[in-house]
Design brief:
alpha/beta, Rossmann fold, 3 domains, 7-stranded parallel beta sheet, 29 helices, 25 strands, elongated, transferase, glycosyltransferase activity
């Protein structure tokens, strides 16, 4: 979860707009939800301290939730009057007498911040303007909360701290925040949890003059989507709705309506333009923030004779957002002929409206505020510039420049194109985005070696126990070092308390890092992939790790309990073998099958076969428990989600884990079996699918394999034993599903296994040699070079099964037990085929994709 806090205490200031752009970038393609604290409980001079949110949410896109720290009003001594007193006496007056009280109150505030973050499962924090000392109590509290929360959850640099304004940029002449070196201001500090950002190189240099040893500060310019703002169906009525004639030139001022923004200059410019062209001024800002200033500006417009040409339009939604029923800044710019930015000399740092104008293809006129040349002028941007140190108000000459830029279409087009090219290069989205993509995704503890990915969907009933087994992992006789692993829980649109339970567990067990992320596309394959991508990206940002150290992505299932030594044995197997994948052992608790001897016998026979073949071939990963080395994961492109049509709709194919293992094996990655790494399978899987196991339709038919819901109570009648005939059918489908995948497929993918002594001993030298020759023939005949695509491995596996079934079963009886028996009956269509043509018709049968007969014969995932 991404938590943002703005120290601006204003719904849609430039600070908040930049937060939205950054948060959208950070959250894109990830599972972050975005919560924003507008800072009403921080900045005292906005008349909003402790005020509940009203209709502010309507200004924001639906992916942002307005939030705030719980319980701040209950912190003794923390209120608006205290904040104002500290600002006046400590910051402005230089009197340290209150600092003891500041620290006491800050401790209470920090506690509330931490509690809020724990409740929400925060993993990334964006602080906007936190250094500006309007409220040093809150800033000190925030630092305290960051250090404790970050250390507890081993989050690394999980805080993006960006200062838009600092003491030398915000009314320095009035010394509102004291003078250098600003002793009362909590200065940026070197922290393992904070990365600082300045908007431009000037601000970075000044920050380093103030804090010379600061090591983690970069320039992160405000980012803009360079795209021409155009009139479309959505904003076609903008002028009409605001009473602006279609033929009039439109000046746009996007600002807070406060004295420091000098909107009076725009009104004076409008009056000068009255003799040159028909023009109107649209002021986009909250007139209720400073009612006195709005009244003054209205009176000025009346006195200058342009009151009917000035529209105070209120807040527009941010530049690149769409909110139903509201106009945005880009909608305004689609109709504007010029953006004006005649602000105070010493009040601005970056000047977002200038960038918004450039990015949208609109010319602009500006004052030469203190940092204009640093950000724009010296970079080569072209515009009429009012030197406000010489002329406080617009001059006739300045008005002439503006009028020419509006009316001369050739000059206008030239200026727009020039500025757009510069803007794309200097502050286009890719500029800031590249830095953000490198520094964030969320960081990981430096000693973490394994990320356990746990996809969940409505698992509230069992999740606590599953998380407990993950938390209580052992290494020998003692607990497994919890710095070595973390849990990434992927909430796949749960409608119950799954996510809340996970966050509660994380808060109650701070010694284990538990991350809760969200995957909106439904399906366990999508969720598993999202978790592994999240972990893989973060693992590369660990600090101080050996470049040769292997990192492992581990899969677990939310309805299965892992044994105490599950992770330690997986890690040991991977470290010893240096394999790409390690596969666990799985078992059922026999107590669940008391009174069901036939069913238990079928289950045990399958698992005994599995133990033998996995010890020989390594097996293939099952989502219930496997580990993959990160480099191997990324080398094959990670988990791939396949889609199939079912009933006219695309559905996720269930066997992403198997198909992933096949991709790794086919790419030359080794697979090892870790028999002492064990997972207990939830028996509900059998209770809910037993009828389909008996008929070979456990997870679908005709080649469609999809997830079924096994969370509800078992169906009526579940829990009884099988009849003798049902037991025979269940075993037939289980062994038919098992043998092609676990005996034939490994040597089909890796024929060199047939040269291994243990494998030759299993098959016998003659059968091993003939299998090898036949595999070479089939691979050549089918021109199979890549077994990664879904089902491409099934046809050759099925063919080899039919051709060698009798001999393979003989070897299974020899190595596993006589009770394995003989191959189940052939499909009726193959029983009457002449022996000399059997291999030929097996090929036709297995390759008949349209009928799905072969898929149905082998059971579609019916193995126990």
């Amino acid at each position: 979860m991404l938590w943002g806090v703005s120290f601006d205490a204003t719904p849609l200031s430039g600070v908040v707009v930049e937060f939205l752009k950054t948060a959208r970038r950070l959250a894109a393609g990830t599972a972050y939800s975005v919560h924003l604290d507008l800072g009403y409980d921080i900045k005292a001079d906005k008349d909003a301290f402790f005020r509940p949110y009203r209709d502010e949410a309507a200004l924001f896109p639906d992916w942002v939730r307005l939030d705030r720290v719980d319980g701040l009003a209950d912190v003794p001594g923390y209120d608006r009057s205290f904040v104002e007193r500290v600002l006046a006496e400590v910051v402005q007056g230089g009197d340290p007498a209150l600092l003891g009280e500041v620290d006491r109150v800050a401790a209470g505030v920090a506690d509330r911040i931490e509690r809020t973050w724990e409740r929400l499962g925060v993993t990334l924090v964006v602080v906007e303007n936190g250094t500006l000392p309007e409220n040093i109590t809150y800033t000190r509290a925030l630092y305290r909360a960051i250090e404790r929360y970050g250390a507890r959850h081993r989050l690394g640099r999980f805080v993006l701290w960006r200062d838009h304004d600092l003491m030398w940029q915000s009314e320095p002449g009035a010394a509102k925040y004291g003078r250098f070196p600003y002793p009362a201001t909590p200065a940026p500090r070197n922290s393992p949890h904070v990365h600082y950002f300045a908007l431009h190189e000037h601000a970075r240099r000044r920050t380093l003059d103030w804090v010379p040893d600061l090591t983690t500060i970069d320039v992160l310019p405000n980012a803009f989507t360079c795209r021409t703002a155009e009139v479309d169906e959505r904003n076609a009525g903008f002028r009409r709705d605001h009473g602006i004639p279609e033929g009039a030139a439109l000046l746009a001022r996007i600002t807070r309506v406060i004295p420091q923004k000098r909107v009076d200059r725009d009104i004076h410019l409008l009056a000068l333009l009255a003799d040159r062209l028909d023009a109107h001024l649209f002021v986009a800002g909250d007139v209720d923030e400073a009612p006195g200033e709005h009244a003054r500006l209205t009176a000025l417009a009346t006195r200058l004779g342009v009151r009917d040409r000035v529209v105070f339009g209120g807040w527009l939604t941010p530049y690149d957002t769409r909110v139903a029923g509201r106009y945005s800044v880009r909608d305004l710019l689609a109709h504007a002929d010029l953006v004006t930015f005649l602000t105070s000399y010493d009040y601005e740092s970056y000047g977002n409206p200038v960038s918004e104008a450039v990015a949208s293809g609109t010319p602009y006129a500006t004052s030469r505020y203190e940092l204009y040349d640093e950000v724009y002028g010296d970079r080569g941007f072209r515009a009429p510039v009012l030197d406000v140190r010489v002329h406080d108000l617009p001059t006739p000459g300045f008005a002439d420049e503006v009028a020419e830029l509006i009316t001369d279409e050739g000059k206008r087009a030239e200026v727009v194109e020039h500025n757009r090219e510069l803007g794309e290069a200097l502050f286009g989205e890719s500029v800031a985005g590249g830095l953000l993509d490198r520094l964030y995704p969320p960081p990981m503890g430096p000693r973490t070696r394994m990320s356990v990915v746990l996809p969940v969907y409505n698992e509230a009933a069992t999740l606590r126990e599953v998380l407990r087994t993950l938390h209580d992992q052992r290494d020998g006789d003692g607990p497994l070092d919890r710095d070595l692993y973390e849990v990434v829980l992927v909430d796949n649109n749960s409608t119950d308390d799954t996510a809340a339970i996970a966050r509660e567990f994380a808060a109650a067990h701070p010694d284990l890092a538990v991350h809760v992320i969200h995957e909106p596309e439904q399906g366990v394959s999508c969720a598993r992939r999202a978790g592994m991508e999240f972990a893989a990206a973060r693992s590369r940002n660990r600090s101080g790790t050996d470049v040769d150290e292997r990192f492992y992505l581990v899969s677990a299932d939310a309805d299965c309990r892992v044994d105490p030594h599950w992770l330690a044995e997986l890690l040991a197997a991977m470290e010893t073998s240096k394999a790409a994948i390690a596969v666990c052992d799985y078992y059922y608790n026999p107590d669940h099958f008391t009174g069901r001897p036939r069913l238990w016998d079928a289950i045990q026979r399958t698992l005994r076969c599995r133990a033998v073949t996995f010890s020989l071939f390594g097996g293939f990963p099952d989502g219930k428990g496997f580990a993959v080395e990160r480099e191997a994961y990324e080398r094959v492109g990670g988990i791939e989600v396949f889609y199939q049509l079912q009933g006219g709709r695309f559905v996720n194919h269930l066997s992403d884990d198997w198909d992933f293992g096949i991709k790794v094996a086919n790419a030359g990655g080794g697979i090892t079996y870790a028999p002492r790494s064990r997972v207990e399978i939830n028996p509900r899987r059998i209770d809910h699918a037993l009828d389909e196991v008996i008929t070979g339709r456990a997870y679908g038919s005709d080649g469609i394999i999809v997830m079924r819901d096994i969370r509800p109570e078992p169906p009526a009648g579940a829990g009884g034993d099988l009849t003798a005939e049902q037991a025979r059918l269940a075993w037939d489908f289980s062994i038919k599903d098992f043998t092609p995948k676990n005996v034939v497929l490994p040597v089909l993918l890796t024929p060199s296994l047939l040269e291994d002594e243990a494998v030759v001993a299993f098959f016998g030298p003659d059968l091993a040699a003939r299998l090898g020759r036949r595999i070479a023939e089939i691979r050549d005949e089918m021109r199979v070079l890549d077994f990664a695509p879904i089902h491409s491995y099934k046809t050759p596996s099925y063919r080899l099964y039919f051709e060698f079934a009798d001999e393979i079963f003989a070897r299974l009886r020899l190595h596993v037990g006589e009770d394995i028996g003989y191959p189940p009956p052939l499909p009726p269509c193959l029983r009457d085929v002449p022996p000399e043509r059997f291999t030929e018709f097996v090929r036709y049968y297995c390759e008949d994709r349209e009928s799905g007969e072969a898929h149905n014969h082998f059971g579609n995932g019916g193995v126990f």
